[in-house]
Amino acid sequence: MNISFEHADGFSITPTMFIAGWKVWFKRFSEHPQQWKFGKMPLGESADSLSELIRQRKRFSLEVLARMMVPWAYRNSSQTSPEFIEKYSKWVELTSLSDEDGNEIKAVSLTEHAVNYWDSLAFAVQDDFMNYAEARVQADIEAPSSDPVVLDDQGIELIGEDTYPPYVPNAEASDEEFIKALVQWIDDAPHQPIYLKQPVGDAVAGWQDRLISFFWPKPRIGYALYHAAIDPLYYRATELAKIVDAEGQKASLGNSKVPWDQEWRDMAVKTAVELFDVSGTPQSGVTLDNVYKVMQAALNEDFDSKAKMNSGWSFLASAATSYLDNEEGRLPMVWWCSRVAGAIISRLDFLLAEAGVTELGQRFKNIGTVPGYGGTRPRQYTLDWPEGYRSWECQIAASQLVQQIVTILNTEKDSQGDRRYGHMPLAGGGRGDWTVLGVQTVLFSDGY
Fold first, then answer.
1. How far, CA to CA in Å, does 254 sit from each of 245, 259, 339, 410?
2. 120, 179, 190, 353: most buried, per Cβ within 10 A?
């Protein structure tokens, strides 16, 4: 029996996901992380917004844990209660503990059945769900209000103070020239991977080494292991998208649509849900129709689409169109989350400002920001960039910009006529041409 959240329109998670979330919350926010199996967690039942609970330092509570399990639209609604605990008494039980002031407050603990169930799972299954739960903390944390939600660490970094770009175009230079300067800057600037406010490994430089140093959602899941997890999902997403693409081509010839059969329909929803789990962006409305419309809009580069769009659906669009890297004239979508957007916009903003540009005007049209808090986000900008959140217009413009970066990395020559930038390291070994996925992976880390 899954665990459903009444105040999240019945959104449900598996007991495995719930226990993994419980363990991650102890690991991150408890003073006694090793006691997760038998320790107590405050119930924290509250009608306050998620951001207010964070301000009240109530991250370590079942209330906040539950809200991070549900889609963003429900995160400002209370998700726990004694009745909730009673309903799922197979997994959690009500107890009490003393707070900092010595007052007895309601608390919960895992049941013996829950602990035994977790211990019975294969280590590989435990690891997968721990990664899903960890991603909920590390990902863009969206909520109905605009108040910032910072579960993970946050710091301040002014782009340009760490290293100055090796090349700044003049104010009249083309957008493409500024993109070339951005690519060169990222290649030149050192990058220190960070996790829980601590450096992970040595600082690196260059697009190739930046890619190799990537991890998500924690250092143990490096570049190769991450791809081992997402490659099967990308394969399914692209196979689904190819059917949608073929359908569109037949429709343009006046033929009837070619629908997914039942097996593909089941796969479409399941693939989307698992992609949202990997990226830490659970979604509501994950229906066959919505998955189809997102893929259709991405394939058609539909600026005016009413299909769903946010950090989660952008990830689905990116995965589904990743096969278009090798098709002339087609546009693979980028994952336009706060990290990728922050990486590109912060560096372009600095380059433009240094060049003496005071207003964007028609520069980088439709490139817009995505709200995100944690790491070094939000970043400070000099120019007035529009908001690109939930915008297909921005999604497509951003994908076009990233495609320019891909082209620069694959074709730019140095003064000797040799390739300026090395080939992209492949997760399974060897090297190849840069792809949108490879570029967005580097940008994802750069935008932390």
1. 15, 15, 42, 38
2. 179
Q: State phi, psi for 260 to the nearest 5 degrees.
A: -65, 140
Cβ atoms of residues 143 and 49 within 8 Å = yes
CB 67 within 8 A of CB 165: no
Tokens representing residue 116 in the block: 């035994």
Residue 258, pLDDT score: 38
Q: Rounded to the nearest 5°, which phi and psi values hold at 419? A: -60, 125
User: What is the DSSP annotation of 117-153?
Assistant: HHHHS-HHHHHHHHHHHHHHHHS----SSSS----S-
The continuous run of DSSP H or E covering 290 comes out as: helix 288-300
Nearest to 399 by CA among 299, 308, 327: 299
Please report the pLDDT score of residue 162 as a whole number: 64
Pick the closest to residue 129 from 215, 60, 31, 217 (CA basis).
Answer: 217
Other beta carbons within 10 angstroms of residue 142's beta carbon come to: 23
Q: In the block, which residue shows the tokens 């390739």?
A: 419
pLDDT of residue 257: 56
Q: Can you read off the two tokens belonging to residue 191?
A: 């990058």
Query: Do the beta carbons of residue 59 and residue 48 sit within 8 Å?
Result: no
Burial bucket for residue 44 (CB in 10 Å: 0-12, 13-18, 19+):
buried
Instruction: Using CB atoms within 10 Å of the CB of residue 361, give its burial: 0 to 12 exposed, 13 to 18 middle, 19+ buried.
Output: exposed
Read off the DSSP letter of residue 169.
-
CA 242 to chain centre: 24
Which one-letter amino acid corresponds to residue 436?
Answer: V
pLDDT at residue 160, as a whole number: 57
* Positions of the chain with pLDDT under 50: 156, 252-256, 258
Q: How far apart are CA 55 and CA 52, in angstroms?
A: 5
Residue 248 has a pLDDT of 74
Beta bridge partners of 104: 98
| pLDDT 10s digits, 38-55 | 999 999 999 999 999 999
Task: Identify the DSSP state of 191.
Answer: B
How far apart CA 417 and CA 145 sit, in angstroms, is 52
Q: Judge whether 27 and 133 are in contact, CB under 8 Å.
A: no
For residue 159, the model assigns a pLDDT of: 55
Q: Which residues have CB under 8 Å from 74's CB, separation 6+? A: 5, 7, 8, 9, 11, 67, 284
Amino acid letter, 410: N
Q: Which of 150, 141, 130 is nearest to 55 (CA)?
A: 150
